[in-house]
Design goal:
The complex is composed of two ATP-binding proteins (ModC), two transmembrane proteins (ModB) and a solute-binding protein (ModA). Pfam families: SBP_bac_11. Keywords: Metal-binding, Molybdenum, Signal. This is Molybdate ABC transporter substrate-binding protein. With 254 residues, the chain is an alpha/beta fold. It folds into two domains: 114 residues, 3-Layer(aba) Sandwich (D-Maltodextrin-Binding Protein, domain 2); 98 residues, D-Maltodextrin-Binding Protein, domain 2, CATH 3.40.190.10. It has eleven helices and eleven strands. The strands form two sheets. It has a six-stranded mixed beta sheet with strand order 2-1-3-10-4-11. A five-stranded mixed beta sheet has the order 7-6-8-5-9, with helices on both faces.
Length: 254
């Protein structure tokens, strides 16, 4: 049943994509937090290579399962190491192609309508206990897993857990806070970077959660993945990633 649902989802996505006669399309399955930067980079890739780039976004857990069940992806970019490790253990990615693309930070954000009265992250969480907190699924979505780790490290998880609204990807959490439907959100720093619709309260200390690394790799059997992975190491990609609040972890020569 899960497999059928995933293939139906992919079919709906693929049906809406434009065709490019004679070109070699390349399909990238990426964590939803990468959507703004990859959408910006796609035209540059297509101009440089002449090949269309098909981008599919969701939580890392969902797209990893899609790939495991045979969805037609060439490249996988995860928001944590564990889902890439999972596919590696299944033989679904080429381990020699794997590299860490970027680093991110974890942020507490607030709706524009919420008067937090402070930029002290711990104080805001302590004084706004009546607010619902948007975050990813804590057992599947990397942003949710990092968020739970951080709240546990600060000794706040058990007190705040009843107020957490868990969502299937971090972009959904951002949208709910931006619309003012929820007062607070635990998202990535890149989601808050230059986002006029939410207020950045502060960044969680990096020692409160696992390192937020985004590995990229070719899906086993792909003949088009190398071109995309090379492009993602280019200075064009590095500049765009920095502009969107990520920290590139590679050089063009790597």
């Amino acid at each position: 049943m899960l497999g059928a649902a995933i293939y139906m989802l992919w079919g709906c996505i693929g049906a809406s994509l434009p065709s490019h006669a004679g070109a070699e399309p390349v399909t990238v399955f990426a964590a939803s937090s990468l959507k703004p930067v990859l959408d910006e980079l796609a035209p540059h890739y297509e101009t440089k290579t002449g090949n269309p780039l098909i981008l599919s976004y969701a939580g890392s857990a969902l797209i990893a399962r899609q790939i495991q069940l045979g969805a037609p992806a060439d490249v996988f970019i995860s928001a944590n190491q564990s889902w890439m490790d999972h596919l590696a253990a299944q033989g679904a990615i080429d381990p020699n192609s794997r590299f860490d693309l970027v680093r991110n930070r974890l942020a507490l954000v607030a709706a524009k309508t919420l008067e937090t009265g402070s930029r002290d992250l711990r104080r805001v969480l302590a004084t706004q206990k009546q607010q619902k907190i948007a975050m990813g699924l804590v057992h599947a979505v990397p942003a949710g897993q990092y968020g739970k780790e951080a709240l546990e490290a600060l000794g706040l998880w058990h007190e705040l857990a009843p107020h957490v609204v868990q969502l299937d990807n971090v972009r959904a959490a951002v949208r709910l806070v931006a619309r003012g439907e929820l007062g607070l959100g635990i998202v990535y720093a890149s989601d808050a970077h230059k986002n006029p619709d939410i207020d950045l309260v502060g960044l969680f200390p990096e020692n409160t959660h696992s390192p937020i690394l985004y590995p990229a790799a070719a899906v086993t059997g792909s003949e088009q993945a190398e071109q995309v992975l090379t492009f993602l190491r280019s200075e064009t990609a590095r500049a765009a990633l920095r502009h969107h609040g990520f920290v590139p972890l590679f050089t063009e020569e790597q």
